[in-house]
Structure formats: structure tokens, C-alpha cells
Amino acid sequence: MRKYNLAAFCFLFLLTSCTISNENSEPTSEMELSESESLAKDQTSNSLTYEVGEAYENVTFDQPLHFTSAYDDSNKVFIVERTGKIYVMDNQPDVTTKEVFVDLSNKISTNGNEMGLLGLAFHPDFKQNGYYYVNYTTQEETVISRFKADLKSYETDLNSETIFMTFPQPYTNHNGGHLAFGFDGYLYIGTGDGGGSGDPQNNAQDITEIHGKLLRIDVDKKTDESEYSIPEDNPYEGNSENYREEIFAYGFRNPWKFSFDPQKEELWLADVGQNVLEEINLVESGKNYGWRLKEGTKEYIPDNSTNDQTLEDPVWVYDHSQGQSITGGYIYNGSEIPSLKGAYIYGDFISGRVWALKKSEDGQIKNKELLDTDLIISSFGLDENGELVIVDFNGKLYKLIEKE
């Protein structure tokens, strides 16, 4: 039986509180699954050859949501706690101490259990400029801001904050929260649909609204109006229809982690489902990924004014017999687990399952369950060497180990 602390249970409940069936969507049966969905079920019978072990036995965290590196040749790692702190520590298995990198507890609100400090991204030139970016919620809104760290002490002056973007949150859930720099040097920001059951305001399909989107901004060029500018090749840059120019792609419910494949320069995004399917998308500029018209590959609330051929299907889905809240991961290119080289490693927050998905050159997808854990998988992360870490919302960090 899985064990959850109270905070984990509350976060889990809100993350999946809209998975109750409703009149617009019925539980799926195996007969209704597409070919790729059936393959997902078949793959779970494969023999398991992996286990998890503690990555850093001597340290624990309070509701951790993210693990990352600054890629500054320091071999340090950073852990984001939903409750407001970011810690830095040496990337050594026997590390015994962690230091506060920044404490934003007094700036954020955690009154809703999907609220808090949700994301962290280091500027590609962090080693020179000390800039990093965070995504957090106040009582009323989401804030995207930049801080400057002292590169010698790894401490942050809270007065260095520059706010880049704010937008209101109509509900406390579906805040998205992840942000990351792409290979193009632009900052990508995942936003949830604003919350509520079934996207009641249809935000994800409304390109005049910022919710339910993947945003893309240039943080290195400010304008007279804002601290950032719009990349010239953003799909709605310079439009006269009041579309949000920050939008890179849209039609998402609650994107919970996205990442970039360094070899193929593809953008992988996991979107938490409503009550039937969890999905993985390969995201391209200007495309519509379906929510709330569709949940994964299935119709949700159709709109006759939208041509289904304009909607992008996910590259992979799994139903709620496998898990109920997808946690996106990373393409693995480390050296410790050669058998997973080039695979997209992802998991499920509720079931604790971990999978490896591979896409061949001709686009064929193969998915394999690696193991079924008791972890509450809130995130995955990579260290400076490209080695994978699994973040357990209960407070520990783990790594995958291949059995002999």
C-alpha cells in the first residue's frame, strides 16, 4: 500500500481532482484503445530489469518539485521545494549538507495545494551573469521573475528580483509551473488551463488568453513595454487579432514538465489528463494539442467550428489503469545506464510507475515499463553529467539502477 504524508495527499488530490468521470467522457475500455494505447498495456508485461536506489542518502527535502543543474561546471545540483526554498548541494552520493540558495517563502502562496514555488531555470550564461528564473504563485497570480546569484557564495539578494510576467489564476489548480531554456536561447513556460473541471472557461483553445499554453519569450531583449521581447518566429508575433504573442503552442490542460532532446532538438511535453488518458506530446510551433476538444486521443467537448485535422494527436497515451497523473521526464543520454540511452524516461505521480519510451527514425514508438515503485514522482531531473534523478514528493531523491 502506498504511503502519503498529508501534504503529498493534498497536492496529489488537487493535481488529479478533475479525474472524476463526467457526462462528457466515460471510462475507456481496452477495446476502445487505439493501437498505440494497446501497446502501452502490452508492454507492461515485459520483465523488469531496473530498481531504484537513493541518490543522496543523507539529505531530505520538503515537498520537492524539481531537480536541476546550472551547467556552470561546478558539479552542484539544485532542488526546488514547493514551500518556497531552493537548495544547492554538491553532486556527491555521500553529501551530508545542503545550503539555501534562495528562500522565497515570504513571496509565495501555498494556500492552494498546487500553488507555491513551481519552477526554476538557469540562464544559459549563468556562469557569467548569475541569472536564474523562477515560476511561483501568489494568492492571486502566477509570477515569472529573474534573480541574480552571487557566483562565489551561491547566495541570492532578494532585492535583485526583476518581474518579467504576471497573469491571474482563476482557480488554485492547473498552474503548470515548469520553465526551461531551449536550444534557441529562449525561455519556454508551461501554463495550465487555469483550473476548474474540464476547462470551464475554454482557456486552452483561446489564443487571446495565456492559460493552457506553452509560451516562448526572449529574456535577453527588453522593450519599452516589458522586460522581455517576442521572438520573431513565434507563430503570433506581430498579429493584429489580439492573440497572445508569447504563445508557442496551445491546447494543454496542465503540462507537468517538458524537456528538450539534445540530439534531435525535439520538445517533449507531458500533459496531465482529465479522467481517461494521460498524454505525451512532441511540440512544434503554432500547433494545437487539443484540450478541451480532446483528452489525449479521445473526444472530450467537441466544437463543430474546429476541424479535427488541425489538432495534433499525442505521440503516446496511457489510460488510468496505469496511472492518473503523468510526470514528464527527459531523454536519457548519460553513461550509467547504457540500455536506456536515447530513451524518454517518464513516470506517474499516483501509480509510481516509470517507463522508457523510444521513437525510431521512422517515427515508430515503443514503450516499456521499467518498474512499479512506491514513490510519489513529482519530477525527474538531470545533473551536469546527464544522469537521471527521480524526485519523490515525500522528500527523497532516487536514481535508476540496472539490475545485473
From TrEMBL:
Limits of the Glucose/Sorbosone dehydrogenase domain: 62-375
Keyword field: Signal
Record-given protein name: Glucose/arabinose dehydrogenase, beta-propeller fold
Higher taxonomy: Bacteria, Bacillati, Bacillota, Bacilli, Lactobacillales
Keyword tRNA-binding assigned: no
Keyword Membrane: no
Signal peptide: 1-21
Sequence segments annotated as region (Disordered): 24-44
InterPro entries: 6-blade_b-propeller_TolB-like, Glc/Sorbosone_DH, Quinoprot_gluc/sorb_DH_b-prop
Pfam families linked: GSDH
